[in-house]
Structures are given as structure tokens and as C-alpha cells.
């Protein structure tokens, strides 16, 4: 069972339009609403693969009630923690060429008691979890050290932790030695304090995060592929993608694929790449099912193209 923790979940509304024109009245050609937040997306991808998952998350207002119902319809057990504020609603606008414009709300402010209640909800379920995935930004009211406390408590209970966050929250948590951290290229650059122009520079940055405490680093490099750097070495994975429809949740799908495949080694990296590639070819923040995956399109290797220039340098 994969337990996910999403301290700032959302309802994600996606509108597909022919073109975004500022100041105009636009008609959507398609729209959808999905349960959102990085940890929630991981749970959705795990559930889509037919594996058990439990989502721990604060829920408030009618938006929180709808989020819980949507999770239940997907076969995901929602371990909701009641909070006074309303769950946020995020808006994504997708254009046919793959351009995505996002409006993310800040979300409710959690009290000290509510923050502790989320940690307690994790504690009561930790023994049944093969992995705990802690994902996303922290809501107002939570200090950057909140993830570090969660990682420390989970490790004391014998659990393995995958952490997908950035900035001060990531830096503070590294001292507690999370088993896997999953930055994208921009977050990786931010963590080491310099831009990354090549795959080789990304490998060095991942090694620095390991030096700071991360036991393994799974780094998404966008269209360039993904890196896995752990105690056994560094590995690189790419996949053939026909057309990008939406990249919302693609990194979360990758993490789900990685953990569902065991959470270590080249085979898990290949699963991560396959899930991410499938996700970007789906609408909105839809998560891939096994039927969407194309393992034959994935290539993983220890022979990393260190000189390859990143298409979108961080």
C-alpha cells in the first residue's frame, strides 16, 4: 500500500480552448474537474494501476467534500482531516499546441492543531504502508520544517519516505534523510543555488542533494527525460512521446510509477518514465492506466549523455 500525504490539496478544473486571448470571452471546447494536489495525483496514478493507496489530506468546505467524493469514486480511501478553511480550487487552461496556463490558489491556513492532526493521521496508518509519498507545497500556517518532522516520525516507525517538494521545505527535510526526493529541473537548480544547462550538471546537482542527506534522487528533466541517482550510481531514462496534450500531474504519475515498481533501481526508473510519458499525452490531470503505458517506448541506460543541453535550462 502506498500512503500519500498532501498538505495542500485542491480541486483541479481544466478548460481546453483554441487559443488564449487576454481580455476576451473564451468558450471552452472541453472541460473537466479532477481531485488535485501532488500527493493526490500520486494516489490517483497508483489506483489507476490497480494498487491500494490511502490519501491523507486536510479537507474543508464544500470543495473538500467534493474532493473526498471524487477520490472515493476512483477507489481511493481518503483519510481526510477536517479543517476550518475551504479546500482550494486551481484552474488550468490548455491550448492545442500543449501550452498550459495555470492559476493556483493559495489554499486555507492550517492551525497548529490541524497540522498536528495531519501528522497523527499519518501515524495511525504508517504500519500498513510500503511507501509514504509526501508531496507538494505547504499551506499557510505550516513551517518549512513540517516535512522534516513528518520524515523523522515516519522513519522512527520504520517507513520509507518519498518527498516531492521544493525550496526551504526540501532543504529542511534533507537532514532527516528521505529515501527518495523527486525534484524537477527547476527545483533541482533552486536546491543547489545555480542554473543547470546540461544533463551532466543535473547529475552533479543530484549528487549534491545526496551529500546533503537524500538517499536517492529521481529528477524529472521535462522533455529531456529523467535521472535516478542513488548509492549504486546514476541512470538516465527517456521515452518516445507522440504529442503533448497536458503536463499537469506528469511528475506525480512518474513518482507513482517509480514507487509502484519498488522505488529503487533502473526498473523503477523505467516505470517512472513510462508513467510520465503516458500522462503528458492525456487531457488535464488525467492519470494513466496500464493500457496507456508503452514500455517499448522507454529507454534507460547508465551511459548518461552528460553534454546534452537541456531544452529548458533551469
From TrEMBL:
InterPro entries membership: 1-PFruKinase (IPR022463), PfkB_dom (IPR011611), Ribokinase-like (IPR029056), Tagatose/fructose_Pkinase (IPR017583)
EC numbers on record: 2.7.1.56
Q: Do the record's keywords include Phosphoprotein?
A: no
The terms under GO molecular function for this entry are: 1-phosphofructokinase activity
Keywords annotated in UniProt: ATP-binding, Kinase, Nucleotide-binding, Transferase
Transmembrane residue ranges: none
Q: Which family does it belong to?
A: Belongs to the carbohydrate kinase PfkB family.
Protein name per Swiss-Prot or TrEMBL:
1-phosphofructokinase
The organism named in the record is Streptomyces rugosispiralis
Name the gene that codes for it. pfkB
Amino acid at each position: 500500500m502506498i500512503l500519500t500525504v498532501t498538505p495542500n490539496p485542491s480541486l483541479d478544473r481544466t478548460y481546453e480552448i483554441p487559443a488564449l486571448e487576454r481580455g476576451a470571452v473564451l468558450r471552452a471546447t472541453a472541460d473537466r474537474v479532477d481531485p488535485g494536489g501532488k500527493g493526490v495525483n500520486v494516489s490517483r496514478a497508483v489506483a489507476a494501476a490497480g494498487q491500494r493507496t490511502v490519501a491523507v489530506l486536510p479537507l474543508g468546505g464544500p470543495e473538500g467534500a467534493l474532493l473526498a467524493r471524487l477520490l472515493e469514486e476512483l477507489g481511493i480511501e481518503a483519510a481526510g482531516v477536517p479543517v476550518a478553511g475551504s479546500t482550494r480550487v486551481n484552474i488550468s487552461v490548455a491550448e492545442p499546441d500543449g501550452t498550459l496556463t495555470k492559476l493556483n490558489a493559495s489554499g486555507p491556513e492550517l492551525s497548529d492543531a490541524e497540522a498536528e492532526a495531519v501528522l497523527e493521521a499519518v501515524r495511525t496508518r504508517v504500519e500498513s504502508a510500503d511507501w509514504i509519498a509526501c508531496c507538494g507545497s505547504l499551506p499557510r500556517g505550516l513551517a518549512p520544517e513540517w516535512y522534516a518532522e513528518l520524515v523523522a516520525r515516519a522513519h522512527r516507525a520504520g517507513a520509507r519516505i518519498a518527498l516531492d517538494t521544493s525550496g526551504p521545505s526540501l532543504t529542511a527535510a534533507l537532514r532527516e534523510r528521505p529515501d527518495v526526493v523527486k525534484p524537477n529541473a527547476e527545483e533541482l537548480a533552486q536546491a543547489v543555488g545555480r542554473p543547470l544547462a546540461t544533463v551532466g550538471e543535473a547529475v552533479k546537482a543530484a549528487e549534491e542533494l545526496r551529500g546533503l542527506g537524500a538517499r536517492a534522487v529521481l529528477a524529472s528533466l521535462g522533455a529531456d527525460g529523467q535521472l535516478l541517482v542513488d548509492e549504486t550510481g546514476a541512470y538516465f531514462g527517456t521515452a518516445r512521446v507522440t504529442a503533448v496534450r497536458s503536463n499537469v500531474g506528469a511528475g506525480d504519475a512518474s513518482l507513482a510509477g517509480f514507487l509502484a515498481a519498488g522505488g529503487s533501481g533502473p526498473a523503477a526508473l523505467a516505470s517512472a518514465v513510462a508513467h510520465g510519458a503516458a500522462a503528458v499525452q492525456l487531457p488535464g490531470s488525467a492519470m494513466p492506466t496500464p493500457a496507456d503505458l508503452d514500455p517499448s517506448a522507454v529507454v534507460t541506460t547508465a551511459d548518461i549523455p552528460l553534454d546534452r543541453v537541456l531544452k529548458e535550462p533551469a
